[in-house]
Amino acid sequence: MKVIKIDKKDWPGGLEKSRSEYKLFGPVKDKDNSYFKELDADIYPDMESTNTRLSPKSIAFPQSEVMFNYSNDESKDDCNIMKVPEKNYSKRAIIGIRPYDAKAFLLVKKNFDNPDYRDPYWADAYDACTFIGLAVNNPDSLDFSTSTNTGPFDTSGLDVLLVDIDDSYLAKVITDKGQEYLKSAGFDSEASDDEKKKIEELQKAAEAKISSKISFNKIKSKTVLELYEADFWEDSAFACINCGTCTFVCPTCWCFDIQDETKGTNGKRLKNWDSCMFPLFTLHTSGHNPRETKLHRVRQRFMHKLKYFLDKYDDGIMCVGCGRCIKMCPVNIDIRTICEKMNS
């Protein structure tokens, strides 16, 4: 295991040096919250906040993205021909992403980039990224990531894992992409054996601080109808107001809608975030809606994350335990409670 020691005094200079090869993204403080954004010159990632308000999924899956441009002007040779706009998929370094958010990209990848289908918009953006993670030394009270096959020091989905040791970062090199980024930033001082051991000590301490846990060990063996027809769904859905906040803040939600917008003779086809919690999401052209009530929609959200995904991929649930949906839900619906009900 190669570990590079980075003095925090050298950190800003290294980031600036890496800009010659990479576009930088990272959490930026905005009032009381942090959000993942592209980092302009002399702007550095907020490495102090525990969690960003929204997940970094928008880096590969923008909230609104132009898929095609077209013209309806019949005097032009390219009339009614869809054209993919020029995209910039140059190298990107995602600085300070938390391990559970990096793991979320791997779960979403199963949908957007698999042997049967590859969504070029998501996959090309993802492939351009180098993920420089930041371990969570002090998980907050809503973090249950150790129950979802990830954790505060998990390296799956990362190219480098940074560990904060007060005046320095220890950079655990995981992939060749990670090594390339550190080289471009000029970080090359190898850590001592004692410092490497400190990573293991901090990992054990961080994992011990996570008291919030869930179980899904029995869900796989249950039939879909057994869970679909369970008697707790009505009570669980009662408070929901279908605001969709849970799906927008979630790092693994991938629902989208496609719309055309035309002004004059010029038009765009757009891919926009959507939500299974919205009544319009499943409304058919005929007027029929198979998920007409909020009970249907709440049940669909949790069945997808905790049952359908688990059955289809046999690789855990579609949740990384970040706790955002719990924190942001205005009516206190808690995925941990729903999961325990389904499991029992």
Describe the model.
With 344 residues, the protein is α/β, with parallel strands linked by helices. The protein has 2 domains: 3-208, no CATH class; 224-343, no CATH class. It contains 11 helices and 10 strands. α1 (11-18) packs across α4. It is globular, with a radius of gyration of 22 Å. The two termini are 41 Å apart.
Short description:
The chain has helices at 11-18, 99-112, 120-127, 176-185, 193-208, 224-228, 233-237, 245-249, 294-313, 324-328, 335-343; strands at 3-7, 23-30, 33-38, 64-71, 92-97, 129-134, 160-164, 168-173, 256-263, 266-273. It has 344 residues and is of the alpha/beta class.
Topology summary:
Layout: E1 3-7, H1 11-18, E2 23-30, E3 33-38, E4 64-71, E5 92-97, H2 99-112, H3 120-127, E6 129-134, E7 160-164, E8 168-173, H4 176-185, H5 193-208, H6 224-228, H7 233-237, H8 245-249, E9 256-263, E10 266-273, H9 294-313, H10 324-328, H11 335-343
Helix pairs in contact: 1-4
Distance between the termini: 41 Å
Round the Cα radius of gyration to an integer and report it.
22 Å
Q: What is the string of SSEs from the N terminus onward?
A: EHEEEEHHEEEHHHHHEEHHH
What's the mean pLDDT score? Answer: 96
The main sheet comes to: 7 strands, mixed
Could you give the count of β-strands? Answer: 10
What is the count of structural domains?
2
Please, how many helices?
Answer: 11
Strand order of the largest sheet: 1-8-7-6-5-2-3
Helix content: 25-40%
Based on helices, strands and strand pairing, what is the structural class? alpha/beta
Beta fraction? 15-25%
- Unreliable parts: none
Shape: globular
